[in-house]
Amino acid sequence: MAIGLAATSGSGHYDGRITSFVILSCGIAAMGGLIFGYDIGISGGVTSMEPFLRKFFPEVYVKMKEDTKVSNYCKFDSQLLTSFTSSLYIAGLVASIFASPVTRYFGRKPSILAGGAAFLSGSALNGAASNIYMLLFGRILLGIGVGFSNQSVPLYLSEMAPPRYRGAINNGFQLCIGIGVLAANFINFGTEKIEGGWGWRISLSMAAVPALILTIGSFFLPETPNSLIQRNNDHQKAKEVLQRIRGTTNVQAELDDLINASSISKTVDSPFKKITCTKYRPQLVMAIAIPFFQIVTGINVISFYAPQLFRTLGLSESVSLIMSALIAGVVGTASTLISMLVVDKFGRRAMFMLGGVQMFVSQITVGGVMATQLGDHGSLGKGYAYSVLSMICIYVSGFAWSWGPLGWLVPSEIFPLEIRSAGQSIVVAVIFLFTFIVAQTFLAMLCHFKSGIFFFFGGWVAVMTVFVYLLLPETKMVPIELMDKIWKEHWFWKRIVGAVDEESKMGSA
């Protein structure tokens, strides 16, 4: 059944609607974002809980509670503690590479299923952990789950969505990440108060809930028309699915473009080798640059270590956890919802740049206050502490409506079918690689850079805002299978892509 929202592409080329079938399918698939967000939110809160630290990281607990000579910025500096957080991301990096051939040759559904099942196993192991080895192995299983789901879910959402509403539907992935972070922070706040010191087990094992929804739901998901054509050359089945998800029988124009893209993709034996060709240089640059910039915004400083950061400011354990919930959860989720409503109206470029300015100003302000008001010992005055919290709210909001969702949306919509699974794997691998680096090094960086950590990330925000202004063309409402045209019309990329086209014409003449 279709809801009455007509959806034609920017070129007027395709007919279609947003159907309830698409909403339901994409809602289940977007649970992949929920498990990712839940883990991001839960790990920072759990690693600030004193019973958890006493059991697995006693040296950190001693520094935090008993060693008054340790700098405010160095209380949580432990490579073993950061390994708990970062081990998931190195596992996810490796898993995303293996996920690419699964997604390409077996379909989007099996990859989503594998992600949900692995995450379900990891959450059970973490909740039952009795030693550091069980804890880390559980994190590795979680990483495998996130690697598979992050590789396949954004592709699934972009391929199912009508071009006109692709931004809003794909941003549902980031919305679910935000909801996962929100739920995790409130669960941490509640479980921290459980007497007996076992609340952290509930926090870790509750990750099984969204993982179970994703795993069971994946059995009922339809495969995307793109994947059906690419894998089985089943044009009739693809047409039936396309008619169902578009809410119209007039899908021949879109189907023809899908068949044409699939024909090109089948001439490619090695997508990872193909994506390095000059013809795909713009997509490769974006596949590396956009996820890299998304991570060096410094968002993981807030996502992973907000409770530790707030305790550095002198706040108590409970207050730190509730502030993490309010800032990373409520503010982030509300801002992502706003992004879903406006992304297909205002476009990607404007939102990237405005969000960058908002994040830059807030980070520089936070760094300035901490540099002048927070020493190695003691805490901030109440007024300054609240000003820092306000600026962090503004920062999280800026990320959540711009670089957060768009960092997933834009890469998922720019790749031609023949390199799509490889391109998305590169995006996910870059995200996991630099997330691992930031997660593993941040507490040490905080200890050594102190307040300068905010100037460090603020500098990167300035660089990436200029990068978007100069090098990213607008992708709003452009059908995925016609996306190659935007590079040929861009002031910089047309020199590269246009030169390849000229060589091709001369070679065929």
What is the number of E strands?
A: 2
The SSE order reads EEHHHHHHHHHHHHHHHHHHHHHHHH
Major sheet strand order: 1-2
- β-sheet strand percentage: under 5%
Mean pLDDT: 82
- Distance linking N and C termini: 50 Å
Largest pleated sheet: 2 strands, antiparallel
Shape: globular
Structural class: mainly alpha
Number of contiguous helices:
24
Radius of gyration: 23 Å
In which range does the helix fraction lie? over 70%
Can you tell me the residue ranges where pLDDT is under 50 for at least 5 consecutive residues? 1-12
Keywords: Membrane, Sugar transport, Symport, Transmembrane, Transmembrane helix, Transport
Membrane topology: Multi-pass membrane protein
Domain Major facilitator superfamily (MFS) profile: 25-476
Pfam families: Sugar_tr
Keywords:
mainly alpha, 24 helices, 76% helix, 2% strand, globular, disordered N terminus
Set out the fold topology.
Elements: E1 2-6, E2 17-19, H1 20-29, H2 31-46, H3 50-56, H4 58-65, H5 79-105, H6 108-127, H7 132-160, H8 166-191, H9 199-205, H10 208-218, H11 225-232, H12 235-246, H13 252-265, H14 271-274, H15 281-295, H16 299-312, H17 317-346, H18 348-373, H19 382-401, H20 403-414, H21 420-449, H22 452-471, H23 484-489, H24 493-508
Antiparallel strand pairs: 1-2
